[in-house]
Amino acid sequence: MTDTLDMCRIDAGLLYSLMETQARYGDTGDGGIDRQVLTDAHRDVRNWFRGELDARGYSVLVDDIGNLFGRIDLAGPDAPLVMVGSHLDSQPKGGRFDGAYGVVAALAAIETLRNEAKTRHLQPSCNFVIVDWMNEEGARFQPSLLGSSVYAGGVTRDFALSREDSDGKTVESELRRTGYMGSDAAPQSDIYLEIHIEGDVKMEKAAARIAPFVRHWGALKLRIEVRGEQNHTGPTPMEARRDALLGAARIITEVRALADKADDTLYTSVGRLDVSPNSPNIVPGNAVLFSELRAPEPEILERAEAELRSALPAIAKASAVEVEIVSVDRRPAGKFDSRLVELTEQVARDFDLPTMQLDTTAGHDAVAVNAIMPSLVFAVPSVGGVIHRNDEYTAPEDIAAGGDVLVEMLRRIDAARGDLDRLGESI
Description:
four-stranded antiparallel sheet, Aminopeptidase, 13 helices, alpha/beta
């Protein structure tokens, strides 16, 4: 076990201060935040964070899909580049920890490393970049992980820019409106780290303090349109109705049934339903469902998708409507870098923090970036497993413990000159 006196602990005062300040932007007054991507509140928190980076001497960069980077070169132009971050956008009426913790912890960790190097007269061997990805959440514009997916080559920039919200505004128009249509070249990193709250109760139940995500589940996101016929809810005979919402309701039931009867682990949901014209006195003429299927193995998703597709014609016939799958987004299952998993666990043990390994069922920007570089997300506990809600909460001691692990991981990666195969020599 490493002597903790030789280990690096995060500047907890800076971390707490940054956490408190970011939570003021989009504050809902009940403990939560609402700053969906490219809204005024999201623009304002990004402007504040840019100011924090600039004041500390970082090179502030914004690429042409709106990802925000703060780069600090501590080791010269040809040194390895380590990227750390997450996202500052939120769900509607979401929590103040999801995403934002990863961004501000990145700044606090790198600032701690800089101060450590100055105090001990050390020369770092790596350069660092903090990232705030554009549209991780996918609440306003779909799909999620949009900025990181463009960065990693998973989707094209033109596709991302053309995404529309429910009011018909595009990503491109809102990037320009908020001042985040950048032109800087995105830094090409060698390693990516992200810290997050768990959003589940597994860690809490196991009394674990740190948990690296070993696998990321696959996700299938289907937008399904149901087309009926608009009519009056009073005089229109029941047998003459082509109720789009009735068809949508039957699809929602089928989506849930997929999970209930699955032979293996499958999570399903319909999290959003757009109904038109959405009047209590009109038989709905149109409904659009936003459905998600998530599973750890590809074959589970393939089987569930096939079952859903095969069920739709009968639902359409029974409801006297037309049903069409209008878009499909696929996110494959995979594994994070095992060397970074091992490093997380080793550092946590050296801090005497209990660990456990987890899968992430949720999407994170690291999932997209994992396709092009060694990446990892690790988690700290969420009280009650709450996430995407105003009462989302992680205790200050866990916020600080996660920061300690993050900064010490970065210190050891730096000691290994960014070579993950040499990490054992620096532990």
